[in-house]
TrEMBL record:
Record's protein name: Conjugal transfer protein, TraA
Native organism: Roseibium aggregatum (strain ATCC 25650 / DSM 13394 / JCM 20685 / NBRC 16684 / NCIMB 2208 / IAM 12614 / B1) (Stappia aggregata)
Biased composition (Basic and acidic residues): 23-34
Location of the region described as Disordered in the Swiss-Prot/TrEMBL record: 1-34
Amino acid sequence: METPQVGKLRRSMFDGLKLNARPHPERPPETQDIGQDRLAERLRRHSPFEAAVDRYARAFCAGQKQREQSLPLLESQKREMQEAGRQLDQAWPGSLELIKSAVQRDPQTTRAIGERSGRGRVDHLVAGMERERAAVADPAVRADRFVER
């Protein structure tokens, strides 16, 4: 093994390396805003209503998994569904019946509650509840549902 001589400096493998130090072209401002908006939306805390919707969706999915396996609901699952429903109605009166109806009648809402999670699921469920509210307000839909019953 050779030892470096005292008078000579050892060169680094990066000596003489010249990097292209031009600034990176900026993204257009509108795409920056969209990216920042998406990040801000993901980081935003749930409102009490959104938290209640999320809790109800989690409880519903747990119960649904039990039913799919032909197992009875556990007492703890029944209590959680009841508590989640109460929290949902406290956050927005009437929303428990609205979400139940939306899950039963709206295929998009049914898919969202089973296939999505987190903020995406909450957003889809709230949109489904809005569609259901609009449907219930329509006299023709109400008459059709009355005849169904």
